[in-house]
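Milestone 3.1: sequence recovery, worked example.
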């Protein structure tokens, strides 16, 4: 019986090639199969469907009425097996191929069946910057083609470079292995140009798949829409897959591109739109009821690939709710600081200065370029990994500025090459190299250490081979990785800031001013894979940009966790809204893309809130010392005091909430600490007290070292002392602080340990408890009592020798850190958080240049 079911199940799968699942079942009935056999076939199909839907990766949120028909590749497929062969030839191992197979199968399973009478699917795939999204959608296209999708439209960004790169990849992996099965409407050097007799591509007698890779350019899209309309009588049986690469760019809330995409899809009775992006902020803020391109059918969250260098790996991030801050890494020591005084030397201060601006090779830029040549020589010694080596210089979007970098960079190259035999020059380069490989040891990445003497042999050839390339919308000298190994310093702006892969990118000099999460994150071309040189990448940028990227790393992780969370709670894209953490100096996305955004609601129930940013000047810090001493005095007078001087602990129990509220009114939280907003905290506590009588009493804890510790003690009140603690600030030994106040901001990243969050609980072995256990214990013992913890931080706070990302705090007086722990209520009382934005009216922010979208010439 099992063999009989196997054979008939294969018949059913054959029927699915030309019929929807419902139609295939009816065909089985027409064939005279017994009801019990049909049911067993349906059960087997449903089992496979469930296996696909319940894959751990990638995570998916989808509309619950989606019908899964695709159950994976079949023996007779042509397009997907060809991709597998190409990837194996390129060195992909079994695990990587299996991961791509699973992820692409899941996406295809969420598309509509190509034989449905009509459909209009809306989906979004969220990947990581430079993480292989193109490979994923190529695999999706191949599997969709194997199952009967006919027209494939790829919207490949707004620049020719990305369009050409995408076309080349698709030709290599889809068309070259099966040339008779595909027809191209575009090629490497030509965007879409209308051909005669469009209907001939779509008639029933023409069984070839049609590929069109086009820019999001108004002129091109209008021509394509008109061309499609000329074949409208033949499109009823033409299932189309629209892949929108960089789906947050130009697609959302644009006056021309957005309507034109709708126009194209309106011509197609059967269309599936799937956006791909690493920065879905704009896509997730579209009004779902507007009929726009909101991903109403599914959102797929691609897993982070093994070996991928992402935001968190390089910049670190802050702990999310429920995480122990001590478990969150600071990132690798690969960032070098550009002083703010250098900015006006590499980028004009105002638009009016562009025509007369002449850039300089500053000390930091010169160091970055020299390190690039050294690291490229070291990679030649190793002889592993990709053969290309690229440096990115991105200071401005203005092409005039780019072009004026050529002369000083060529002069630096010429002078260093001429002086390379000089012992003084060699010693300077040796010192630079030895310092860098000491800060980021090759052994930590499983790479071979290369000495200066070894790379010196290769260095002259590297400098000779290096080209200075101006890659922008007005230049003809573009990066070309198809004609042999490349060593290049690429100076550019928008053409290098999104989508385009810079092969072998190892050094970046980045001081571009931007104002939105998505724009900034997409400029991180240094994200991606660094096989064979994972220890060598370096990034030169301002300290402010480093802080922004660390914040973005936290936003990105939190956003992906939200998507995963809603998946486990049986939500769908129309019943959840991903929260996006805001920032006082950055917009989430462009203002036009946020027009449908609403204020998010949040609550502190079950959360641990802590200060991580501080100023270091005496007047500011004195206010906080006074607020802390006032709170302790009031707590001593009103609460029950428990002292543990041996461990540096004092606890005052059952302190009335008005004393805590008064402290929150007095204490100055740094403006960068959004979650530590006094007004929000006070509103939340008052609301909980008023609504359910919770948080009317608090435990106040003082946590530090024993009083006899080396750093000495801090006195909160007469007879109430604890030893000072060390909290070094984020930074490195090459930190350069400006004189306008940025040197007064300290980011310690972590204040509270997990153990401290349980300081007032009676449970034993508190250091062994995880976050969940602490919440449960608090709910059992103190379900309505809040905890506030005060920390006396030593004003010097020298970091431990192994903390490479830390430098001394160097405050003028001791710093008071604050942590608040809220019990988890059964029903919480959310409060409204505002979107915030800095006053950018006096700052010359360089936005993305979208003039190409409207240009007739750029077509």
């Amino acid at each position: 019986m099992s063999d009989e079911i196997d054979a008939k199940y294969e018949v059913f799968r054959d029927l699915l090639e030309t019929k929807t699942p419902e139609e295939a079942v009816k065909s089985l009935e027409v064939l005279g199969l017994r009801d019990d056999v049909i049911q067993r076939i349906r059960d087997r199909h449903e089992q496979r469907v469930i296996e696909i839907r319940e894959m751990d990766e990638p995570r998916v949120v989808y509309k619950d009425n989606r019908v899964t028909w695709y159950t994976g590749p079949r023996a007779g497929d042509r397009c997907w097996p060809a991709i597998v062969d190409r990837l194996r030839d390129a060195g992909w191992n079994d695990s990587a191929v299996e991961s791509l197979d699973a992820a692409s199968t899941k996406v295809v399973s969420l598309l509509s069946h190509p034989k449905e009478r009509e459909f209009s699917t809306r989906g979004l795939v969220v990947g990581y910057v430079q993480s292989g999204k193109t490979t994923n959608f190529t695999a999706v296209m191949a599997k969709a083609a194997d199952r009967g999708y006919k027209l494939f439209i790829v919207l490949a960004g707004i620049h020719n470079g990305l369009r050409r790169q995408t076309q080349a990849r698709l030709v290599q992996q889809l068309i070259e292995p099966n040339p008779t099965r595909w027809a191209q409407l575009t090629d490497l050097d030509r965007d879409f140009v209308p051909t005669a007799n469009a209907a001939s591509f779509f008639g029933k007698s023409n069984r070839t798949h049609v590929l069109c890779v086009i820019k999001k350019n108004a002129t091109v899209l209008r021509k394509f829409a008109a061309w499609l309309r000329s074949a409208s009588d033949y499109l009823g049986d033409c299932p189309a897959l629209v892949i929108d690469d960089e789906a947050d760019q130009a697609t959302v809330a644009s006056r021309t591109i957005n309507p034109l995409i709708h126009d194209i899809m309106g011509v197609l009775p059967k269309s599936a739109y799937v956006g791909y992006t690493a920065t879905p902020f704009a896509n997730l803020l579209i009004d779902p009821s507007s009929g726009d391109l909101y991903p109403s059918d599914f959102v797929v969250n691609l897993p982070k690939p093994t070996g991928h260098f992402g935001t968190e790996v390089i910049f670190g991030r802050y702990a999310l709710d429920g995480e122990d801050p001590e478990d969150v890494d600071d990132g690798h020591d690969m960032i070098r600081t550009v002083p703010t005084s250098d900015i006006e030397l590499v980028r004009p201060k105002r638009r009016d200065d562009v025509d007369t601006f002449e850039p300089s090779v500053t000390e930091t830029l010169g160091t970055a370029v020299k390190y690039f040549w050294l690291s490229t020589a070291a990679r030649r010694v190793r002889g592993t990994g990709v053969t290309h080596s690229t440096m990115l210089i991105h200071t401005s979007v203005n092409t005039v500025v780019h072009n004026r970098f050529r002369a000083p960079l060529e002069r630096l190259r010429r002078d260093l090459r001429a002086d390379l035999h000089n012992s003084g020059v060699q010693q300077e380069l040796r010192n630079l190299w030895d310092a860098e490989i000491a800060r980021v040891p090759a052994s930590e990445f499983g790479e071979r250490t290369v000495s200066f003497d070894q790379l010196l042999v290769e260095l002259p050839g590297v400098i000779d081979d290096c080209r200075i390339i101006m890659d922008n919308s007005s230049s003809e000298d573009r990066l070309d990785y198809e004609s042999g190994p490349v060593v290049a310093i690429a100076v550019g702006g928008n053409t290098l800031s999104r989508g385009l892969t810079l092969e072998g990118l190892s050094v970046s000099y980045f001081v571009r001013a931007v104002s939105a999460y998505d724009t900034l994150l997409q400029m991180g071309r240094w994200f991606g894979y660094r096989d064979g040189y994972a220890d060598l990448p370096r990034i030169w940028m301002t300290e402010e940009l480093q802080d922004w990227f660390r914040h973005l790393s936290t936003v990105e992780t939190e956003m992906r966790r939200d998507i995963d969370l809603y998946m486990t709670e049986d939500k769908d894209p129309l019943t959840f809204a991903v929260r996006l953490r805001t920032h006082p100096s950055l917009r989430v996305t462009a203002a036009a893309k946020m027009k449908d955004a609403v204020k998010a609601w949040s609550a502190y129930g079950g959360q641990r809130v802590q200060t991580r940013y501080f100023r270091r000047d005496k007047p500011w810090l004195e206010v906080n010392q006074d607020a802390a001493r006032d709170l302790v005095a009031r707590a001593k007078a009103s609460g029950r005091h428990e002292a543990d001087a041996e461990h540096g602990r004092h606890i005052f129990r059952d302190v009335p909430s008005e004393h805590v509220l008064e402290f929150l009114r007095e204490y100055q939280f740094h403006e960068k600490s959004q979650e530590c907003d006094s007004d929000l905290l006070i509103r939340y506590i008052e609301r909980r007290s008023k609504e359910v009588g919770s948080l009317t009493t608090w435990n106040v804890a003082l946590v530090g070292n024993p009083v006899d510790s080396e750093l000495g003690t801090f006195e909160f009140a007469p007879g109430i002392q604890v030893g000072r603690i060390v909290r070094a600030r984020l930074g490195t030994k090459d930190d350069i602080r400006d004189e306008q106040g940025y040197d007064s901001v300290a980011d310690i990243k972590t204040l509270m340990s997990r153990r401290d969050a349980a300081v007032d609980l009676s449970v034993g072995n508190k250091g062994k408890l995880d976050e969940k256990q602490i919440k449960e214990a608090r709910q059992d013992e103190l379900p309505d009592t809040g905890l506030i913890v005060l920390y006396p931080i030593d004003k010097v706070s020298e970091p431990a020798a192994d903390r490479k990302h830390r430098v001394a705090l160097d405050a003028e007086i001791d710093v008071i850190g604050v942590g608040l722990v809220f019990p988890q209520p059964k029903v919480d009382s959310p409060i409204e958080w505002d979107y915030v934005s800095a006053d950018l009216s006096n700052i010359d922010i360089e936005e993305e240049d979208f003039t190409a979208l409207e240009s007739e010439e750029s077509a």
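Confidence is low (pLDDT under 50) at residues 583-601, 736-742, 832-859. The CA atoms of residues 755 and 767 lie 5 Å apart.
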